[in-house]
């Protein structure tokens, strides 16, 4: 090396690679977790809403079937038989009060016919107990509340009718003229029957219009009930005018 040539500079040591900043990775991971949780919550909410829609639809279908197929035709039959039951109860009372022979009293008692039925609220009770009713709007629930409102009273009256009809049929079929005690028992049972029949008859004028707001009362099953009533009461049976 000549004296005129400058001396070479010493080599610089290599710079170490940049160290990644840990807080950037932490925030990125937090964001991923938050977004994942948010998506999961939204997905779960959508699933829950779909499930509740399915439950509400099933509950409404069950209540409609109970009202339009089960309770409705039975209530129509009672409305159609009202005049017949009033007339037959009056005929029994007349036979007792005019001291008709026991056989004649029994003939008229046998003419008082009721079809054993139940006025069910199973679907409505299930919807209320399972909190499905809270997922219906007030406008959606109101028709069911109004239609079902009289069913408990009908059920109690129907149970009482069975008991009082049994009291009529407890009369001995053989023997002399009715005793005073027998006449009193028959008249008391008849009065209870009259009150129960009046309660149901007045209720049908309210209940049937509420039920038909939900749909058409099953015509086939209604026809069976009307035919059965006419088999016992003939032309006295008339379909309600407000159907």
Can you characterise this structure?
With about 240 residues, the protein is mainly alpha-helical. The protein has one domain. Helices cover about 70% and strands about 0% of the residues. The protein has 7 helices and no strands. Helix 1 (about 20-95) runs antiparallel to helix 3 (about 120-130), helix 1 packs antiparallel against helix 6 (about 180-210) and helix 5 packs antiparallel against helix 6 (about 180-210). The chain is rod-shaped and about 140 Å long.
Biggest sheet descriptor: none
Radius of gyration: 39 Å
Alpha-beta content class: mainly alpha
Number of domains: 1
User: Which range does the strand content fall in?
Assistant: under 5%
Quick one: how many beta strands?
0
Mean pLDDT: 86
The outline comes out as rod-shaped
Distance between the termini: 124 Å
| Low-confidence runs of at least 5 consecutive residues | none
Tally of helical segments: 7
Helices and strands, in order, run as HHHHHHH
Helicity level? over 70%
